[in-house]
Design a protein that fits this description.
Blueprint lengths: L11 H5 L8 E9 L3 E8 L2 E8 L4 H16 L17 E3 L2 E7 L13 H22 L24 E2 L2 E2 L4 H17 L5 H20 L11 E3 L8 E4 L2 E5 L6 E3 L1 H12 L9 H15 L3 H16 L3 H8 L9 H13 L1 H9 L1
Antiparallel strand pairs: 1-2, 2-3, 3-5, 4-5, 6-7, 8-11, 9-10
Helix pairs in contact: 3-7, 4-5, 5-10, 6-8, 7-11, 8-11
Length: 356
């Protein structure tokens, strides 16, 4: 008998009838409740699966993402492509909702604190492998080929900033100043203000000062983009023992400056609780990434500058809390907000770690 939980149980009967021999359902437990999708561990009499409910409902874009992961797997990238149903389809549209059934991967997440020097090197090489294989898989579609396997909604879907005639634009500090004022008003109006509210107010005021000091450091638009995972971080990489078992969650597959994904990923994997980066591990990871993709040091240095600027202007955790009333990301705020300040102070050391 299926166990119940707060979210609605997916239509398992209608879903499993589409597949050959999936077994009878035993339990269906939620494992992720995200904004882009929901995930469940589905156990049947034949084994375990990861059931993904895609909330955006664009089954054509989802099917394209699936084809990409299938082709990446054939090139040796550790991924977990969906199970194909009896009709050769990977997306089940039931009642207007889109579902996909993936093999269940037994593994654990590892952040940089749990990675050895060798594992940091392998991590950089793995992301480089992803980027070079995506270039093979997607072909000319990075330049707008409408026949490419990735043409469609997923292009440019990483951060809402696409590439047009002006390239990949960086954040406008004037817009950020407006956002800071809006968030400060919400923070100060919060009833029963707690330690988080006090820290949020402090960081908003601090960031305004930093932006005023560095407003003339806004980077120009980047002009070169390539296909990237779009959300490469510890929660989207499963390890089995010491080795990566699967890169998951390809919803943000899109075209962006590739080296910036390498920098963003490092800023998540290698950030310490106090907001500093483990630069020795960053250096090892970045050198392996550069070697894997053939990037020169100037490309990484430019990416460091753009991602640093992005971090100075970014308040996504506070927007979730105060504008969307969503507190799931609150535990990340202390380290993330401290990182922007530390990175500004240690700018040259960070750039050297990525580009030396």
């Amino acid at each position: 008998m299926l166990r119940s939980f707060a979210t609605a149980v997916p239509p398992l009967g209608a879903l499993l009838r589409r597949y050959d021999g999936p077994g009878e359902p035993l339990s269906c437990e939620p494992v992720t409740l995200g904004l882009l999708n929901r995930g469940y561990r589905l156990s049947t009499t034949e084994g375990a699966y990861f059931l993904k409910h895609h909330l955006d409902g664009d089954h054509l874009a989802i099917a394209r993402q699936h084809r990409v992961t299938q082709r990446l797997q054939s090139l040796g990238v550790p991924v977990a492509p969906p199970v194909t149903d009896a009709h050769g389809e990977t997306v089940a549209v039931i009642g207007g909702d889109c579902y996909a059934l993936h093999p269940w991967i037994d593994g654990r997440h590892r952040d940089g604190a749990h990675l050895s020097t060798l594992q940091c090197r392998r991590l950089g090489g793995l992301l480089g492998l992803v980027h070079t294989c995506l270039e093979q898989v997607m072909g000319r579609s990075a330049e707008g080929d409408e026949d490419g396997p990735g043409h469609g909604k997923e292009q440019g879907a990483g951060n809402g900033i696409g590439a047009g005639a002006a390239g990949y634009a960086s954040a406008d500090p004037e817009d950020t100043f407006t956002l800071i004022d809006e968030l400060l008003a919400l923070v100060r109006a919060a009833p029963h203000r707690d330690s988080f509210d006090l820290l949020a107010e402090h960081r908003l005021l601090e960031r305004r000062t930093l932006l005023e000091l560095h407003a003339d450091s806004r980077p120009p638009p980047a002009v070169a983009g390539g296909w990237v995972h779009g959300d490469f971080h510890p929660l989207n990489l499963l390890y089995r023992g010491a080795e990566p078992a699967a890169i998951v969650d390809w919803d943000r597959l899109g075209v962006q400056p590739r080296a910036e994904e390498a920098v963003r990923a490092a800023a998540i994997f290698f950030v310490r609780p106090e907001g500093a980066l483990e630069l020795a591990k960053v250096r090892t990871y970045a050198r392996a990434y550069r070697n894997a993709v053939g990037a020169d040091t100037s490309e990484l240095a430019a990416a460091v500058h753009r991602v640093w600027w992005e971090r100075l202007n970014d308040f996504w955790i506070l927007r979730w809390r105060y504008q969307l009333n969503d507190r799931r990301a609150d535990p990340q705020f202390a380290a993330v907000s401290a990182l922007a300040v530390w990175w500004t102070r240690e700018y040259e050391a960070v750039r050297e770690a990525f580009a030396s």
